[in-house]
Amino acid sequence: MKISTKGRYAIRMMIDIAQNSRDGNVSLKDVADRQGISLKYLEQIVIMLSRAGLLRSQRGAQGGYRLVREPDQYSVGEILRITEGSMAPVACLENELNDCPRVDFCPTIKLWTGLYKTMIEYLDSVTIADLLNDSSESDMSCRDI
Questions:
Q1: Is there a contact between 74 and 67 (Cβ–Cβ < 8 Å)?
Q2: Count of C-beta atoms within a 10 Å radius of residue 64
Q3: What is the CA radius of gyration of the chain?
Q4: Could you tell me if 83 and 50 are in contact, meaning their C-beta atoms sit under 8 angstroms apart?
Q5: Contact call for residues 70 and 21 (beta carbons, < 8 A)
Q6: In contact, 66 and 33? CB cutoff 8 Å
Q7: What is the spatial distance between Cα 86 and Cα 7, in angstroms, rounded to a whole number?
Q8: 107-136: buried (b, 16+ CB within 10 Å) or exposed (e) per residue?
């Protein structure tokens, strides 16, 4: 499985909004400038996150975006599921009910199920607050990621 730019940029945008919303709403143009991401692309992503209830928007001179919850209440897994859809490594695990005709005798189902479980548990254990803390402890820029 490969995380697309949409998922990666959504996480960067959420971190940026969390970092910069202490004084009010955060302009999407400012996020685009700071992150080196196209404003048009961020507009597509922000719609997804707003519809899912992760961001609150306000119009006008003091308009922009804010997190609905505290940064420690957003998991990376939640954001990626909204932007990427299913995180399943194989098609037969995309739905809760595995209707693959080979599921009962598939020699690799445990491998894929274990990978999926491990990945989801890890992504759900990392929060925006964790990433904020990591970025404040490091001078590394993720512009090229």
A1: yes
A2: 21
A3: 17
A4: no
A5: no
A6: no
A7: 12
A8: eebeebbeebeebbeebeeebbeebbeebe
Token readout for 14 is: 């959420």
- Residue 41's Cβ-count burial label (10 Å; 0-12, 13-18, 19+) is middle
What is the amino acid identity at position 109?
Answer: I
pLDDT tens digits for range 75-126: 999 999 999 999 999 989 998 888 888 888 999 999 999 999 999 999 999 9
Q: Identity (one letter) of the amino acid at 66?
A: R
Q: What is the 3-state secondary structure (H, E, C) of 3-21?
A: CCHHHHHHHHHHHHHHHHC
pTM above 0.90, yes or no: no
